[in-house]
Design goal:
By secondary structure, the protein is α+β, with helices and mostly antiparallel strands. 33% of the residues lie in helices and 13% in strands. Strand 3 and strand 4 form a beta hairpin. A five-stranded mixed sheet has the order 2-1-5-3-4. It has two domains: 75 residues, Beta-grasp domain (Ubiquitin-like (UB roll)), CATH 3.10.20; 69 residues, DNA polymerase, domain 1. It contains five helices and five strands, in the order E-E-H-E-E-E-H-H-H-H.
Length: 165
């Protein structure tokens, strides 16, 4: 079986797997990275949203042979030693209900804020429209994105420790 090498959350990894195996299964079953969730397996729910070279993508439909030499970032690699400002905003705004979709929601929000540092409601709705939250926390998601945008524009970096709302 061939080995595929890529950077995962800042570390070079090499995995032996069939080339057409979806990256989501490589992450979860081979590498033990469980932040990206399996929701639909066809790229429509957003539960697995991660970053490929800084852009949001769906590992459930990306074969492992397509990430060779690239940088993959999952929710586990987002904040480094502390919380990313988007993660902090999620906690402060008390976004999560069941929490299942939240890693994908957060990763999509980070990608949005990279290109739109001061997003309008329309920008947020467009960017987040392909990430489904079955609990319906969309109003809190929008509030958290706006709070994170303020944190990022003010130069707030990642925080350490446990955050409280």
């Amino acid at each position: 079986m061939p080995a595929y090498q890529f950077t995962l959350n800042g570390q070079t990894v090499s995995v032996e797997a069939p080339g057409d195996l979806p990256l989501l299964w490589v992450l979860r079953d081979i590498l033990g990275v469980t932040g990206p969730k399996y929701g639909c397996g066809v790229g429509v729910c957003g539960a697995c949203t991660s970053h490929l070279d800084g852009e949001a993508f769906r590992p459930c439909i990306q074969p492992v042979n397509g990430v060779v030499g690239h940088q993959v970032t999952t929710i586990e690699g987002l904040g480094g030693e502390g919380l990313h400002p988007v993660q902090q905003a999620w906690i402060t705004e008390d976004v999560a209900q069941c929490g299942f979709c939240q890693p994908g929601q957060i990763m999509a929000a980070v990608a949005l804020l990279r290109t739109h540092p001061n997003p309008s409601d329309a920008d947020i709705d467009a960017a987040m429209s392909e990430n489904v939250c079955r609990c319906g926390t969309y109003v809190r998601i929008r509030s958290a994105i706006k709070r994170a945008a303020l944190l990022l524009r003010s130069g707030a970096g990642a925080t350490t420790g446990t955050a409280t709302p």
